[in-house]
Amino acid sequence: MPDNPEIEDVTIRIWARRASSSAQKVYWTLDELGVAHEQIDAGRTFGIVDTPEYLAKNPNGLVPTLETPDGFILWESNAIVRYLAATHGDGTLWPSDLRERASSDRWMEWADGTAKAAINPIFSKVVMGWEPYTEAEIDAHVAKADEVLRRFAPWIGERRYVGGDTLTIGDIPLGMILNRWFQLPIERPALPAVEAYYRRLRERAAYVRNVVQAPHVI
């Protein structure tokens, strides 16, 4: 907690750990928007999430959880990203035009429901060792991920970001899972448009600080 009680009263708190892929989305958003916040390590080796105090905030016992100075509490990383973008990034991360916002928002859903679902099994088996696997199984997972990303390639091949020329909410979850994809110790099929998009994301200091350079899972 901050030593200065005045800071404690005005700063958004985030319960999470830097290694959490879900939390990386939130930290990246905060950094892009320049929003001051206090990080409280929680989850896995840090504990806290199974305490009565934390469960009163987030009954799922997961991270991240956001709490505003006036006591508003929010969990689910995409919901937090949307809230932060709406309250601090209107017209930037949060497009003012409703249809532009909806177009960007759909890529948040696609990132978690389709891209992450295809890529995460490789991460869980190859990097984390949570499940036994054969090379044939990994090849099948890679083929599935390649199929999914090939659907995305034509879209991003015509745009700088998913919403157009500027970063929006739609890029946040997708940027997190693509970083995981490109850091997997595997041979990936060539996807030039997706690779170029990943390079553009890596030009953003906030993305590098909070996603690319995030610590390994602990």
From TrEMBL:
Pfam families named among the record's database cross-references: GST_C, GST_N_2
UniProt keyword Lipid biosynthesis, yes or no: no
Positions of the GST N-terminal domain: 10-92
SUPFAM superfamilies, per the entry: GST C-terminal domain-like (SSF47616), Thioredoxin-like (SSF52833)
Segments forming domain GST C-terminal: 97-218
Gene3D superfamilies: 1.20.1050.10, Glutaredoxin
Gene Ontology molecular function: any one: transferase activity
The entry's keywords: Transferase
CDD domains to which the protein is assigned, alphabetical: GST_N_2
Assigned protein family: Belongs to the GST superfamily.
The protein, known as: Glutathione S-transferase
